Each structure stands twice: as structure tokens, then as C-alpha cells.
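Structure first, sequence second, as always.
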């Protein structure tokens, strides 16, 4: 059923949708029907037309939490000071520095970042955990009539999550390397973002068709302190099955470091701008027998580096499956009703979660949720909100969706996921969507809801 379960509401009128249960049930049945094909649905063949479907060399310990502040820039304790950029030379003054992916490699990036933070002490505090989210879409209007509408809502969703957690978002809709189209467009974008944001420890790439569906969840950065990259996947499928669908390259964290600069250069050399592009297609096809695309793609290229160069790259990459770092939408959307009911029951029993509060302090309430959800699990089979729901195969901009499901199924699922997430945002503004299939309708919430 697409309608929310809102327990024990006083004088609260809910919109009803007589077809909602059938639709939600179809999503759940899709999840079972295509369970064996869930990984295959990650195939980037459905993304061809989309713009973007030892100790770490640079660790958080490289940055002090506090730094000496020059007299010319007093530390007011108010956070980063965007008005202060001293005249001292930095790496930005080097005429040889280039932001492009096919330029000469960036060297000594760890030292350059460290020196820049010394020059900008207001940015140094908290630098070890600072994240920049990077996403984007194609530079031209979508072919799918509803594509631009969906991309706008998906962008809003990312901005909402970033605002709640103090994460800035860079949305790019141009090709920084014209030959690196489709899924390869992310690599030059991420490199440019690293250079443009030396104050950020992590660059977080999130595909345009991925939606945050747990607005309270915080990335467990402490888990990744010995790693330089985080991806979603299954180690046994990488190293035992040698499957190119063992990972998903649509969402990843990468530490802003020399390791990352070197890795991005190596990864990008498998792309269409390089003379060895066709050769890499053959290598990847011979390495991963389940690979369908004849061309070299970013996902199988990343899997290859994990498999073949484990000591150099793979050992620094954390393969996450303990929670939905990104999850396949077919197995997720049909669970929203059950999740909503369970969360409502927790709120009814926990006074702290019912208290009205400013959006700016939402993270403190997220910690309370974390206490309540210790036994909820984290990934497939869990009843907690999935962190990121990835609409792999739906192609909202081009409309060239995977033939395993219809375009309408994709659209309905996206609407439900985005409305499910929006309810978590609107809660702090005193409203809620009573029906996940009707994003245009909201009702005011009574005091002390849901008691």
C-alpha cells in the first residue's frame, strides 16, 4: 500500500488510494521475481546515454583539529572564513597545474593540501571529516518528457540531505572531458572537485538517479579510517566469482589525497579518451565472463583494479555491504510501508523522537534513532530505512529503461522513494505527505505526533 501508516493520529485525515496496495505489492513481487537478476540490473548497458549513471598516504591524522591563526585573520570560532585568502603563494599559483583528467599527473597533493590549510586556518578545524558531495546530469534537456522533472526532484533530495548534515553539493552538468561521456564523465569531475576543494577530506560521488531515503543516517567515517575509497559490493563476488557486477560504481567515497589522484589517473586511462580504450574492452571482457558490454566501462574497470592490483589499490578500498550504501530499488521500494509502520511505533514509544525541533539540530535526533535501530539490521532484510536507493536501469533522463520493467514502474517507484524521503524533511516543517504516490498533497502534523 502506498499510503503511509500514521498510527493514532487525532483528527488527521489521510488521503486514500485504492490502487496503492496493489502497486506496492507489485514492487515487492518484482524484488522477489528479479532477485537473481538484481546484480545484472546494475549493468551499465542501461546507462550508456546518461551523462553521469599499508596506512593511507593521507589520513585524517595529517590535520590538526586546531591551527595557529595569524593576526590578520583572527579565529572567531565561526567556522570557515570565505573572505580570507592570503596573498601567499599556493599550488593554485602554479601555471603547470591543470584540472583536466588527461593533463600531467598532480604530484605531492597531500603536502599541497596541508600547506593550503595552514594558510587558511579557519578551514583546518574539522577538515578530517569534511565531505563534498558531487553529482550531476547531462548538459542538454532530457529526451524523456518527465526526465528533467525527476532530475530536479533527485537533486532536491541530495540538497536536503546535505543541508541536514553540513555537506556542500557540487552539481555538474557539463563534460570536463568531451570524450568521456556517459558513466565515464564522473572521473574528470571528481578530479576537478578534489583540486577545487582542498578543505574537503572526502569527495562523495552520487549518481543522479540515486536518492537518499534515510535522512538521519550518517556515514560511519571512523570505519574507513584505514581506507581511501568506499564502494558498495561483495568481496566474494570480486575475488572468487570474478563478476563485474560484484560492485556498483554509481556511489563512492574517495579520500582527497595523492592516492586518489593516482587512482583516478589509472582508472581514467581505461576510458574512451585514451588510445587503449578498445584494448581495455577486450581485457575486461576476458577477465569478467559475465560482462555484457564489449566496451570498457568504469564499473568493470574498477572491479579489475580491485582484482588484479589488490595490493596497490584493492587493499585501500573498503567494500561496504553492511548497510545500503547504495541499494537496488526493486528490492527496496516495496518495503516502505512496513518501515513506516515500525518507525511510527518507535516514535510513539520514544518521547525524544516526537519532540519538535529545528532542522539545524536534526543530527542529534539522528543519534537517538541510531540507538533505537541497533537491532534493525542494515542491508537486505533489514527493516530500517535504506540509506540510498539507486534506480539503476531506470534511466529517468533518456527513458531507455531496462526491459525487465516498465517505464511507469520506474516512475511510480521514484515518486514513492522521493516522497518517502521528503516526509523525513517535511517533519521538521510541520507537514507530511499522507500518500507516497501523491507528492503534491501535504497535511499538517498535530502536536506530539504520533501519540
Amino acid at each position: 500500500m502506498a499510503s503511509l501508516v500514521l498510527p493514532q493520529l487525532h483528527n488527521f485525515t489521510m488521503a486514500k488510494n485504492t490502487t496503492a496496495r496493489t502497486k506496492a505489492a507489485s514492487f515487492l513481487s518484482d524484488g522477489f521475481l528479479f532477485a537473481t537478476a538484481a546484480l545484472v540490473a546494475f549493468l551499465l548497458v542501461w546507462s550508456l546515454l546518461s551523462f553521469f549513471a599499508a596506512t593511507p598516504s593521507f589520513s585524517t591524522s595529517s590535520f590538526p583539529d586546531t591551527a595557529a591563526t595569524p593576526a590578520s585573520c583572527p579565529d572567531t570560532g565561526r567556522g570557515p572564513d570565505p573572505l580570507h585568502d592570503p596573498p601567499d603563494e599556493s599550488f593554485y599559483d602554479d601555471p603547470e597545474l591543470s584540472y583536466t583528467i588527461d593533463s600531467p599527473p598532480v604530484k605531492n597533493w597531500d603536502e599541497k593540501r596541508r600547506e593550503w590549510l595552514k594558510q587558511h586556518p579557519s578551514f583546518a578545524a574539522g577538515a578530517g571529516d569534511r565531505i563534498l558531495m558531487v553529482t550531476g546530469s547531462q548538459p542538454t534537456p532530457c529526451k524523456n518528457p518527465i526526465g528533467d522533472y525527476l532530475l530536479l526532484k533527485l537533486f532536491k533530495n541530495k540538497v536536503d540531505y546535505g543541508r541536514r548534515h553540513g555537506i556542500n553539493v557540487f552539481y555538474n552538468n557539463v563534460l570536463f572531458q568531451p570524450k568521456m561521456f556517459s558513466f565515464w564523465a564522473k572521473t574528470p569531475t571528481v578530479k576537478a572537485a578534489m583540486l577545487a576543494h582542498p578543505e574537503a577530506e572526502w569527495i562523495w560521488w552520487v549518481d543522479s538517479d540515486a536518492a537518499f531515503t534515510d535522512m538521519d543516517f550518517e556515514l560511519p567515517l571512523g570505519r574507513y579510517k584505514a581506507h581511501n575509497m568506499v564502494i558498495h559490493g561483495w568481496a566474494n563476488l570480486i575475488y572468487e566469482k570474478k563478476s563485474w557486477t560484484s560492485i556498483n560504481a554509481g556511489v563512492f567515497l574517495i579520500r582527497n589525497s595523492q592516492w586518489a589522484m593516482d587512482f583516478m589517473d589509472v582508472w581514467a586511462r581505461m576510458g574512451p579518451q585514451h588510445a587503449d580504450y578498445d584494448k581495455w574492452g577486450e581485457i575486461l571482457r576476458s577477465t569478467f565472463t559475465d560482462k555484457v558490454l564489449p566496451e570498457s566501462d568504469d564499473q568493470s574497470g574498477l572491479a579489475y583494479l580491485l582484482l588484479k592490483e589488490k595490493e596497490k589499490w584493492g587493499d585501500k578500498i573498503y567494500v561496504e555491504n553492511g548497510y545500503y550504501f547504495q541499494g537496488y530499488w526493486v528490492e527496496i521500494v516495496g518495503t516502505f510501508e512496513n518501515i513506516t509502520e515500525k518507525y511510527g511505533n518507535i516514535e510513539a514509544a520514544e518521547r525524544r523522537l516526537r519532540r519538535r525541533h529545528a532542522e539545524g539540530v536534526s543530527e542529534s535526533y539522528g543519534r537517538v534513532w541510531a540507538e533505537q535501530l541497533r537491532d534493525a539490521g542494515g542491508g537486505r532484510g533489514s527493516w530500517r530505512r535504506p540509506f540510498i536507493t539507486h534506480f539503476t536501469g531506470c534511466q529517468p533522463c533518456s527513458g531507455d529503461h531496462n526491459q525487465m520493467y516498465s517505464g511507469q514502474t520506474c516512475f511510480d517507484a521514484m515518486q514513492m522513494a522521493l516522497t518517502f524521503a521528503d516526509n523525513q524533511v517535511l517533519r521538521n516543517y510541520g507537514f507530511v505527505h499522507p500518500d507516497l504516490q501523491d507528492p503534491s498533497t501535504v497535511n499538517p502534523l498535530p502536536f506530539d505526533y504520533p501519540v
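Margin note: The two ends are 22 Å apart (CA to CA).
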